[in-house]
Amino acid sequence: MGEISSKACIAVDVMGSDRGAGAIIAGVCQALKENKGDIKIIAVGDEGEIKENLRLHGFYKDSRIEIHHASQVIEMSEKPIQAMRSKKDSSMMRAIDLAKIGAADAILSCGNTGALMAAGTIKLRTMAGIERPALGAVIPRDGKNFILVDVGANPDPRPTNMLDNAILGANYARVAGIVEEGKMPKVGLLSNGTEDGKGNMLTQNAHILLNNSKNVVNYAGLIEGFQVFQGDCDVIICDGFTGNVLLKTLEGIMKMLKGMLKEELTSNILRKFGALLSMGAFQGVKNRLPVEKFSGAPLLGLNKLIVKGHGSSDKAQVAGALGIAIKCVRRRLNESIEKDLAKIQLEAEKKKAVESETRNENE
Amino acid sequence: MGEISSKACIAVDVMGSDRGAGAIIAGVCQALKENKGDIKIIAVGDEGEIKENLRLHGFYKDSRIEIHHASQVIEMSEKPIQAMRSKKDSSMMRAIDLAKIGAADAILSCGNTGALMAAGTIKLRTMAGIERPALGAVIPRDGKNFILVDVGANPDPRPTNMLDNAILGANYARVAGIVEEGKMPKVGLLSNGTEDGKGNMLTQNAHILLNNSKNVVNYAGLIEGFQVFQGDCDVIICDGFTGNVLLKTLEGIMKMLKGMLKEELTSNILRKFGALLSMGAFQGVKNRLPVEKFSGAPLLGLNKLIVKGHGSSDKAQVAGALGIAIKCVRRRLNESIEKDLAKIQLEAEKKKAVESETRNENE
Hints:
Two copies of one chain form a homodimer.
Chain A: E1 8-13, H1 20-34, E2 39-45, H2 47-56, E3 65-69, H3 80-86, H4 91-100, E4 106-109, H5 113-124, E5 134-139, E6 146-149, H6 159-175, E7 186-191, H7 201-211, E8 218-224, H8 226-230, E9 235-237, H9 240-265, H10 269-277, H11 279-288, E10 296-300, E11 305-309, H12 315-330, H13 333-362
Parallel strand pairs in A: 1-2, 1-4, 2-3, 4-11, 6-9, 7-8, 7-9
Antiparallel strand pairs in A: 5-6, 5-10, 10-11
Helix pairs in contact in A: 1-2, 1-12, 3-5, 4-5, 6-7, 6-13
Family (chains A, B): Belongs to the PlsX family.
Pathway (chains A, B): Lipid metabolism; phospholipid metabolism
InterPro entries (chains A, B): FA_synthesis, Phospholipid_synth_PlsX-like
C-alpha cells in the first residue's frame, strides 16, 4: 500500500511519560530523521523544557515542529476521570483537544493509559458504527508479526464489539504493513480450543457473527494458544481482558528469559568466551523479533487516531510509535475502516429487507 | 509437609495418549523407580500390550503393578460425551470406574481432555461445596514455580467458582511443595490492571469475595500480566478461558524461541563453537525451569483426583505426572480442601446468623 496522502500532523504529549520530556523529544527528533515528507509535529507541554530539549538535538529551528504550551502534567498514578476533569491544561488533554478541533490528525502519548483512553473516547467519540474503541498491538513473531486486538480497552465486550475488533485490527494490519498490499489479513479468534462448542459464551457468539461476516473479514476461525506463535494469523482478536493479560505476561516471560540467559552466559569465563563467539546468534534472534519498531499501540475506532506508547519508552520506542501514527494518518486508516463498516451496514440492511419481504409474503 | 499416608493406588489409562501404551508404561516403570513405599498402579488397557511393555522394562512380575483389561480406546478427536457413552469399556472410562468404586485413589490419563473432564465430573462428582472442578498447572518460573488455576475446565465461571479455584489451587500448592511446610501460599487474582475498578466484571466480583475470605485464603489481591513471571505469587487464579489461552501461548512462545536460538546458534561454525563452549549456560537455564517434573495438571475439586498428562507425554513426563498423583494422594489433598471448605461454610453460617439476629432485633 503506497502513501495515499503525504501530509500528517501529529500532536505529541511530551510530558506524561515515565522518562519525561527528554526521551519524548529525543524520539520526536529521531522520527523526523526517519520519516521524510510533509510531517508536522505539535509538541505539547512545558515550552521551556521542550525548547531546551529541541536545542539539545539541533532541532530548535526545525519548521516541522510547533510548540503548544500546556501548564499541567497528568501523573501515571492519577485516576483517569478525575485527572481529565481537574487538569484541563495538561499536555495530554491539550493534545487531544488539538485533534478534536482538527488541528492535528492524530495523537501520541506515553502517559497514563486510563486517562488517555477515557479522555480520548469522551472527547473524540467513536466512529459511527463502532460502540467501543480497541487497543491494537503489533507482536513480533518469527517470520511474520501479528496484531493482537484488544489488549486492554474493553475488558467486557459484547459479541458485536468482537466483530468490530476484527474490522479495526484487519485495517490496522493493512496499514501497518503486516500483509502485502492488496491482501486481506487472516483473522483468528482466540479461544481455549478449536473444537465445536469450545470457547466461553462470548467467543462462541462472536464466532457465529464472524462466520456471517466473511465478505468483510477474512475470518480463519477459532485458534488456540499454541497457534498464536506457531500459526500464521495476521490478526488475532480477543476480549480486552485476555489480550491485556496475555501481552503483559509475554513481556514478563521475555524479560525473565533474557535475564536468566544473561546470568548463565556470564557466570564463568568459558561461558563468556563462548557467548562472545556466538554473539551473532543472539543478535540474530533479536533481529527476528523487532520489538522497538512496534512499540506503539493505537486506540482504534475513534474519530481521530490515538497512539499509546509504553510509559517507559526510550528514544527508539517513541520514534517507532510516532512512525506508526504517521503511517496510519498517511494511509488513511480511518477511511478504510469506514468502508468496511459501510459494507457491514449494507449487509445488515439487505438482510433486514429480505426478512421484511418474507414476512409480508407470509402475512 | 511430610507424607501423611504412605499408601497410594493410581489407576493409569494406558491407551489414549498420542504415543500409545509404550510411553505410558515406560513412564509408569520410571515412576516406580523414583517413588518408594506402598504404591500400587492399576494399568488399564489392552492386556497384551501392557504385558509386552512391562516385559520390555523388566517390570512384568512387579507386584506393585496390576493389570485391568479394557477393550476400547477413546481417540483424541472423539467428542467427549459421545465417546463416554459409546466406549464404556475404554481404558479411560474403566480407570475412572475403578476410582468411583474405591479401588483406586486417583487416576492418571494422557488421553482426550474433554472426555476425561466430562466423564470425571459426571462419574466422580464434585466435592460438597464445589460447583465446578478446575484444572491446575504448575508453571516453571525462575526461582519459584507457581500454580495457575484454572487452565481450562471452566471457561465461564461465576465469582464463587473463582473463590473455589483459590482454595483448590492453594491446597494443591501446599501438596505439590510450591510453599514450605506450614506456609500459606500467596494467591493472586489475574487482572488487566491493579488499580481500583480494573478487571472485567467477573474479576471485580471475585476480588470482593476473595477479600472477604482472607481467613482461609492468603489473598494478595489483583495482579497483572507483568507480575506472573516477575512477581512472587504461589498461586495465580483466573477463569478457565484466560488460563488456557495463557498456558498454551506460553508453550508456543517457548517453542518458538528455542527453535530460533537453535537455528541461529548452528548457522555457522563460529557460532557452533561458541555455543559448545557456553553449553552449560543453556543447560543452566533449562535447569532453572524444570518442566518435566510438573507435566501433569490435576483436575481439582472432584471426589477423586484426576491428573491429566499432556497428550504427547514422553516417559519422563508420564513419570512426573504420576509422581504428582502419588503426592496428592499421600498428602491427602482432598481432605485438606474439605477443611478449607468447611471454614468457608462456617463463616457463611456465622454471617447468616448475625444477619438473622440483627433482623430479629429490628423487628
